[in-house]
Amino acid sequence: MTDGEERGMSRPVVAIVDDDPRVLASLEELLESAGYATMSFTSAEALLAHGLQGVESLITDIGMPGADGFELRDRVWQTHPELPVFLITGRHEITDQSRPRGKGGFLRKPFDGHALLAALRDALGKRQV
User: Nearest-CA neighbor of 68 among 52, 51, 85?
Assistant: First the structure.
C-alpha cells in the first residue's frame, strides 16, 4: 500500500462515473482539493466490476453507454441502500421531472462546485473532511 492509499483511507471516498474524461478530471480535482479521496470509472460496468468496498458516496452521469446512471443507482442501492448517489446530467428536463429517492440528488451540468461539495457534506453527515 502506498502513502497515498493510506491517506486515502482516512478521507471519505467518492466514486465518480462518467464517460467524459474531462468531467472525471474536473470532479477529481474539485473533490481532492476539498479533502476527499476519489475513484474514477468511465462506465457503470467498470465500477460494478471493481466493487464498492470503501466507497462512501457515488457521483454518476445519467447518460452513458451501457448501464445509465439511473440503472447504476438502482443496482448500487440493491446492496448498499444507504449510499448517497448523486446523478449528474446536461439534460435539464430530467432534473425538472425526476425527484431523487434516498440519499443523494440531481445536479445539472454545468453545476456549481460549491453546491456539490455542500450536498456531499450534508449526505455524509458526521463523516466530513
Answer: 85
Task: Give the predicted TM-score (pTM) of the model.
Answer: 0.83
Q: How far apart are CA 37 and CA 99, in angstroms?
A: 28
Residue 57 and residue 15: Cα distance in Å, rounded? 6
Q: Which residues pair with 105 in a beta bridge?
A: 86
pLDDT tens per residue, range 61-88: 999 999 999 999 999 999 999 999 999 9
Are 76 and 85 in contact by the 8 Å Cβ rule? The answer is yes
The per-residue pLDDT for range 20-46, each reduced to its tens digit, is 999 999 999 999 999 999 999 999 999
The yes or no reply on domain 3-124 and CATH 3.40.50.2300 is yes
* Burial zone of 10 (CB within 10 Å; 0-12 exposed, 13-18 middle, 19+ buried): exposed
